[in-house]
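Exercise 7.
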Amino acid sequence: MRVNPDFVEDLREFGANKVTECFNCGNCTAICPLTTLNEERFPRRIIRFIQLGLVEKIKSSLEPWLCYYCGECSSTCPRQADPGETMMAIRRYLITAYDWTGFSRWLYRSKVNEIIAALVLFFLTLGIIYVLHGPIVTTHTELETFAPSHIVHPAGYIFGLILAIILLGNIYRMYRFTMRDVKAPFSLYIKELKSLAVHFLTQIRLRVCGQGSGIKPQWRNHILIMTGYTVAFILVQVDLFTKWSITNTPPPAWHPAKLFWTYSSVAILYGTTVAMVGRIKKNQPYHQYSHSTDWMFLILLWLTTFTGLLVRIFMELDWPIPTYYTFAVHLALVVPLLGLEVPFAKWSHLAYRPFAIYFENVRRRAMEGKA
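Solution. The predicted structure, written as tokens, is:
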């Protein structure tokens, strides 16, 4: 088995700054509410793999994704080695390992690279809007005239298809790394699809984290952001057919899509604000350290949601110019948010974690001989 003696140093750029302080006492594993007697033994096992430079062992493991970083291990570590943040750093590293384009590593290695990428996509999108926008009607708000749906919707299709190809390719690499030695019938993968959907939509394992420890639970905030994003995603897909959003005649206030959109906006804005305030105050173990990619994700998501909400408000007030300009800025924020965060950075957790639980369930059932 190959050993990389420099792996500890390589991992520092992903946020693992104290992993050498760990002397493998096992306290983190004993305190973790998600550790089981015969299966997961995180974070101790992964930390040991890091210290020994067993990179292939780490790539083939699903354990980093089964950790939700409640912070109990970090708050009780006798060496202040911050095992919770080490697990977070390993997840960042694994994102780069799964990424077949290599772009993730370029983003994670430098905050300057990340800022440059976001700015390039932002101004490139503004430039495209400037060139392709329709007539600007100033007597009445006509968003569909300014942003013709025959341009916006096909562009959305193409952009979404590209992101899906990249992300699905990364998930396939994750599968190859972690499941190559597992002999499971195809029927078992079908049976466990339910667990994939459940954990994607509910993040239910996070409810166990931090219980009885005095650590403020993250589940409520996570579920707000998650449901808010899911509702927004569904509404965008519905809009491709109903065209209720990009229109010259906004639907009435009681329109179901408007009600759902209001929930989505409030849930995401509240959730991201709480997360950012927590990272500033650092009053919880899981907020003690923030990688630049964590901040980029929260800022882009907050700004994208806020500008989208402003577009709705300006349309209701029938303010044409503010509506058009804000919509242009909104789209220019959507592109780096989705283009960078979904396949390459923080938002990819949305896919990798439920797939990790799904693969782990398939692996366990295969070992138990349950087809």
